[in-house]
Structures are given as structure tokens and as C-alpha cells.
Amino acid sequence: xxxxxxxxxxxxxxxxxxxxxxxxxxxxxxxxxxxxxxxxxxxxxxxxxxxxxxxxxxxxxxxxxxxxxxxxxxxxxxxxxxxxxxxxxxxxxxxxxxxxxxxxxxxxxxxxxxxxxxxxxxxxxxxxxxxxxxxxxxxxxxxxxxxxxxxxxxxxxxxxxxxxxxxxxxxxxxxxxxxxxxxxxxxxxxxxxxxxxxxxxxxxxxxxxxxxxxxxxxxxxxxxxxxxxxxxxxxxxxxxxxxxxxxxxxxxxxxxxxxxxxxxxxxxxxxxxxxxxxxxxxxxxxxxxxxxxxxxxxxxxxxxxxxxxxxxxxxxxxxxxxxxxxxxxxxxxxxxxxxxxxxxxxxxxxxxxxxxxxxxxxxxxxxxxxxxxxxxxxxxxxxxxxxxxxxxxxxxxxxxxxxxxxxxxxx
Length: 411
Hints:
Layout: H1 3-15, H2 26-37, H3 40-47, H4 56-68, H5 72-94, H6 96-104, H7 106-111, H8 118-133, H9 139-149, H10 153-163, H11 172-199, H12 212-224, H13 232-252, H14 256-270, H15 285-292, H16 297-316, H17 325-331, E1 337-340, H18 346-351, E2 356-359, E3 368-371, H19 376-379, H20 383-389, E4 392-399, E5 404-410
Parallel strand pairs: 1-2, 1-3
Antiparallel strand pairs: 3-5, 4-5
Helix pairs in contact: 1-6, 2-4, 4-5, 5-6, 5-8, 6-15, 6-16, 8-9, 8-10, 9-11, 10-14, 12-13, 13-15
């Protein structure tokens, strides 16, 4: 194997551990807390029924957590492993350049460090795609695993259905079996999610409605990752030229059906059930990277170097990291209490398990409390009015990367 390739590969692997212990953000903290406190059966019967995802990723995180202890590293390690598992199949399909472009992609880099299901689903879908393209019977296994990990995997499997008409037997039975097994759980999840959308009027805002912004963010974030900077106009100019240029170049030499079908299905469904958040479709990035790898050495080198720059900007700029619930939790004085919606209590429970948590929908009489406006708009709660209505006056305000912590004193 080429020595230069191995050096870059090793560097991309090690780089993922530089900031791996940054704080969990909300959804990661929920994953960590639920897998830590619930058994395998309870993860399905008590948690998954109220969640929007199948349970396999939670099982994987629980296994790693039980073996290694629950930490940022153990919860995120499955995603790092899955990323390089996916890169192996890209290498088998399209060679060194495609695998490096995938590993250096800034959005893939970000989500390979995240304790959520998207990278694991991406790896299973890549294994399925490779198996189908090579007429391997075991593609059915990975097709099933992808569905057990992320329902949105079905969009990509449907694209394979149109592209590989003679190989449908290699993945379709596995997908159907997985959906059949999950159907009772999925039915409850759909019913509960509809209740949540009805009760929480602004919940759809975070799910990805059909809006111009959400459509633009898909190609933009695919090649700039989670990096952003001020002035925003400069970010959109630089990021837009870079990302849209690479996106269309890659799309031109890709299997276009594998990209168009999932996005078109997502767009149609999002008129009823919002799901146009760009990170739900990171499994399309390997298709684009394979397309980019079909260009000449100069363009591939520019794409790889530029992608590495975006990754390094993210790693080096702490302001682009995830919400700092760890610092947020540690700032709260010992013996104090925090008031917030119980939907957002898991980060506090994980980082400060002995801290008193009070639901904002109840009334507090404590002389001094902490609170946060985080998520209040989504829940439809008028935060300041609620706190003032309980007789509190804000005396201090702190910021922790996207999370505001307020200290309140009873009047």
C-alpha cells in the first residue's frame, strides 16, 4: 500500500482524537444518559417508543459504555470506527483518492466524532452498496443493519433499488425483514411524534421544514462542515463558492440516482413530516467523493487540501465546537438547583447527577436558582415572563458555546 496514503490515513485517524473530549451537546448527552441508566430492553420499551430512531445505535453505545465507562470518548468511539469501516468499502470500490476525500470531508469529520447514529448508518449503507455492486449475498445483512440504525437509510436503499435492478435480491429482503421487525415500534413512534408535533408548536423548526435555507444548507454543509464565521456574508461567499463548486463537480461524475432519489423523497415527505436537516444525508457524501475521485490529480489534490483546511479550522476554533453542557453544568454552584424543561434535563443529569432539577412548568420557592432559555422557544414557553412570574430577578448571565446560563434571585 502507498506510504503517502498510509501517512495521510494515519493523520486523519489521529486528528479525530484531538478534541474528542469536548462536551456532549444535547442529543449526545441524551444518548449517553439513556444508555447509561437503562437496560437493553428498557431502551426499546421506555425510550425508543418516544424517540424518532430505531434502537441499534443505542445498543452499540451501551456496549461500549459498559465496557469502557461512559465518557465522551466511549460514546463517540463507535462513530470513529464506523467512519473508517465506511472508508474501507469506499477504498474497495473506488481506490485511495475516494477514501481520503471521504475521510477528509469536513462534515464526515464532524459526525465521525459524534455520538449519534448517522455515521454508523452511513457505514452500513456503504457496505450494502459495495456488496450489491459485487454481487455479495451478505449485502442483505448490512441493509437490515442500516434500517435497524436509522430509518432514513431506506431512502438510499430505494435509490439502490432503481440503480441495481438485477441485484435487488441482495438487499431488498434484508430491508423488508428489518422493517417488519421494527414495524410495531415504528407505529408507536409515528403516533408519539405526531402528538409531539401537535403539542409543541415550534418543534418542526428543528426538524428541517421545506425552506430555501434548509435546501441550500445541504450542499453548503456537505463541503464546509459545521464551520461558520463572521461576517456571515464572507462565510457564505467563501463557503458557497467552495461547496457548490465541489458539489456540482462531484455530482456530474457520480451515480446521480443515488443522490437525487433520497433527496427527492426527503423533500416530498418533509411537506408532511419535516426531515430536511442536512446531517441526515451524510450517506450521500461518499457518492460525491467517489465522483470527485474520477477527476485528475490536480483537482483531487485541491479538493483534498481544501477539505483538510476546513477540518483544521474546526479543530482549532473552539467556538465551532459543540454546545458546552459540561462547562454549563460545572458552573452551577453546589447545593443549588436549575430550572428548565425536563426534555432538556439529560445533559445536567449526566454531568451533575446530584444536582436538583426543577421543571419550569412547576413553581419554585428557592431563594437563588439557575436556569436557561435553551429550548424555550421550541417548547412555546415565554421564558423571562415565566421566571419573573415566579418572583425571580436575573442577577447574572453566562455563556457556554450556544447555551446561556442565567442566575436568578427571589425578589
